[in-house]
Q: What sequence folds into this?
């Protein structure tokens, strides 16, 4: 058989085709393969008011598509954190002095000011990699790893997923498992829970390294209800065990009558705190359950995305999150998307705004504002468009406000709720750019 | 056409509606005229002539001329009389591979050189049949695209069961994104993505139609010279060309080349995407 003799037939075929279709030579084809890598990049600025946390974050996420629906994804994130967070100590009508976590010097906070600590802030690098592929006709499997590092913290994690389509692909059931181990090397070591903040040079007996293990399990169902509505329900279980304290968070010890911080005198010749503070103490286990429901509804071009999450944990925190987005197309290649998110949570059982002088020390106590009772609102607007070359660009500006209150039975003497909970305002600005898609 | 047909248009609602109607009418017209499953059409008349001469109309004569030219250009691999091989080859995923004797017997009724074609008169030997299934969809989508473009200049994409044409006035910003499915795909994630501004795109593949016996996979692509499946064909070949008819013929021929598919395609100096895994 003369396999090689066929040669170039493109020209003869073009002539025959012109005759067949009764046309002059067709205009030349224009077909380009799109790159196999697609990229999503984003620059995010998050800034809290009053000298608190500022985060500038660069994220790059790349996906490579292979034959047979196999997908490799790789992500890189760099965060630069500056500013400070509330240490947990309550403001006083006099200057407060604290020993730095390093134990090598002190810093002071003015009268009436909220005590802030800047120890945890640094540059953080995070890497993720994942692989997804079909298993047989109906299943899809994925596996991934994650790694992040900053000067006092290292995270290493792995995740697995399996999903199956039913019902002509109108129903997808998915199962996910994630396991992580986080190593924490706090500046100055991990303080003994509920131990007193000591004078400069007097910290000893601390663990230099601690760790925690986190396991997350997720069960999800996605269902196409009709051509306009898609719903999703998830249940997730998360357990953490190990060192769950924030090593830089403290509680003030206050007078049970006046509510004012109890004073102390540093040892002769040493610098140190002028009031009594204790390091926080959290349980070494935490189990969270969360239920999540989401609906995406198509309203003749507009898309409404509404979701609700309920979370409850064995630390006594219950939270509710309501999130809504409305995608409004503006012409063919751009859209506007308002976003509102409402969040509320109850405080942890061991949340204490301060400890009372003379009381028996509780087993667990934390004044971390993130474990307190608070409400938060996020409101923002996103504008996205497609460039002439088909790249996706979006800018998003959001405002975040968090307001909390202290349970009234915890208020002592002159303490008042409004000034004790360190509420915050923040702005979020995000620019994203996607190409290769 | 035996598969979904789709028209995407950037025209306004009224023009798009008109474009859709024109495309659908042309698809149905060609389906009715050239489907081998419909009694009374020209294909049926030719195939039931029982050795008698059949006079063909202008359009059918053009299709036959085209098929004859392709038969020559492809060294007899592209043959509109090869359809009768389906009598012994049923690609249903089973292991029912026909006996050599059965194949030999039916092969006697295959071969364009045995037909007498004196435009517009066609005479087939008794028992022979023609089948335009290898050209039909590509021809239909090119014809429909020309009619749609005459209707309205707005960019428009026609997809007749994977045979695709980008028609209308293409501008810098109006590339259509066409995904090529993985062979045997289970979902809509494409393994290649092509930006098509103008021209035709066609994919040939052996998808899920095959026989499996003693570990040998018999693809549904039959070599009309031997009556047996082509060995070592790619799992899928996509070709971009000025028209979908050209793209479709080249992707089909490449598949028929078996292990030489890539060599053959390289000689044509066209964009192509071959998937072998």
A:
């Amino acid at each position: 058989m003369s396999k090689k003799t066929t040669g170039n037939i493109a020209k003869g075929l073009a002539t025959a085709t012109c005759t067949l279709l009764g046309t002059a030579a067709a205009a030349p084809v224009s077909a380009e393969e799109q790159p196999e890598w697609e990229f999503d990049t984003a620059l995010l600025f998050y800034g809290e008011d009053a000298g608190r946390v500022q985060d500038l974050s660069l994220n790059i996420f790349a996906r490579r598509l292979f034959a047979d629906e196999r997908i490799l994804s790789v992500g890189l994130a760099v965060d630069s954190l500056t500013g400070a967070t509330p240490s947990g100590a309550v403001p006083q009508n006099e200057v407060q002095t604290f020993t730095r976590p390093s134990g090598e010097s002190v810093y002071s906070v003015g009268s009436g000011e909220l005590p802030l600590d800047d120890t945890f802030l640094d540059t953080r690098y995070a890497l993720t990699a994942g692989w997804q592929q079909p298993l047989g006709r109906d299943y899809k499997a994925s596996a991934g790893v994650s790694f992040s590092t900053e000067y006092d913290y290292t995270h290493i994690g792995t995740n697995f997923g399996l999903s199956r389509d039913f019902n002509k692909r109108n129903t997808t059931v998915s199962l996910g498992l994630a396991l992580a181990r986080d190593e924490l090397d706090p500046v100055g070591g991990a303080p003994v829970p509920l131990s007193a903040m000591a004078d400069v040079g007097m910290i000893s007996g601390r663990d230099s390294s601690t760790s925690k293990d986190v396991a997350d399990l997720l069960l999800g169902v996605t269902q196409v209800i009709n051509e306009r509505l898609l719903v999703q329900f998830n249940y997730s279980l998360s357990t953490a065990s190990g060192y769950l304290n924030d090593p830089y968070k403290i509680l003030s010890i206050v007078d049970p009558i006046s509510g004012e911080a109890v004073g102390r005198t540093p040892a002769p010749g040493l610098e140190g705190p002028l009031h009594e503070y204790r390091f926080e103490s959290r349980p070494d286990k935490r189990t969270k359950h969360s239920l999540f429901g989401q609906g995406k509804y198509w309203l003749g071009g507009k898309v409404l995305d509404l979701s609700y999450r309920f979370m409850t944990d064995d630390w006594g925190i219950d939270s509710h999150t309501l999130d809504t987005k409305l995608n409004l197309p503006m012409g063919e290649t751009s859209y506007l998307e308002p976003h509102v998110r409402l969040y509320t949570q109850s405080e942890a059982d061991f949340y204490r705004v301060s400890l009372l002088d003379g009381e028996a020390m509780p087993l667990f106590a934390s004044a971390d504002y993130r474990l307190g009772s608070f409400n938060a609102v996020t409101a923002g607007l996103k504008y996205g468009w497609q460039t002439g070359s088909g790249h996706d660009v979006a800018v998003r500006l959001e405002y975040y406000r968090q307001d909390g209150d202290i349970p009234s039975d915890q208020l002592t003497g002159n303490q008042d709720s409004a000034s004790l909970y360190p509420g915050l305002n923040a702005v979020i600005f995000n620019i994203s750019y996607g190409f290769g898609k | 056409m035996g598969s979904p047909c789709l028209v995407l248009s950037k025209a306004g609602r009224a023009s798009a509606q008109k474009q859709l109607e024109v495309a659908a009418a042309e698809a149905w017209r060609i389906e009715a005229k050239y489907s081998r499953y419909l009694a009374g059409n020209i294909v049926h008349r030719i195939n039931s002539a029982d050795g008698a001469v059949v006079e063909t109309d202008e359009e059918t004569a053009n299709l036959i001329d085209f098929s004859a030219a392709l038969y020559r250009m492809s060294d007899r691999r592209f043959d509109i009389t090869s359809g009768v091989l389906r009598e012994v080859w049923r690609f249903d995923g089973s292991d029912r591979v026909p006996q050599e004797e059965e194949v030999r017997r039916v092969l006697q009724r295959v071969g364009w050189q045995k037909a007498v074609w004196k435009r517009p008169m066609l005479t087939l030997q008794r028992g022979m049949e023609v089948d335009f299934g290898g050209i039909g969809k590509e021809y239909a989508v090119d014809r429909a695209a020309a009619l749609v473009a005459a209707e309205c200049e707005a960019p428009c994409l026609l997809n007749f069961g994977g045979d695709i044409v980008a028609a209308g006035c293409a501008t810098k910003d109006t590339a259509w994104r066409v995904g090529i499915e993985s062979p045997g795909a289970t979902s809509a994630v494409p393994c290649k993505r092509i930006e098509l501004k103008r021209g035709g795109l066609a994919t040939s593949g052996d998808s899920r139609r095959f026989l499996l016996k003693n570990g040998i996979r018999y693809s549904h692509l039959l070599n009309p010279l031997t009556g047996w499946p082509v060995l070592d064909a790619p799992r899928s070949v996509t070709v971009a060309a000025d028209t979908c008819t050209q793209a479709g013929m080249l992707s089909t021929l490449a598949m028929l080349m078996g292990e030489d598919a890539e060599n053959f395609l390289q000689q044509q100096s066209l964009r192509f995407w071959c998937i072998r895994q």
User: Anything to note?
Assistant: The first strand of chain A starts at residue 30 and ends at 33. The CA atoms of residues 96 and 109 of chain A lie 5 Å apart. DSSP finds two helices and 24 strands in chain A.
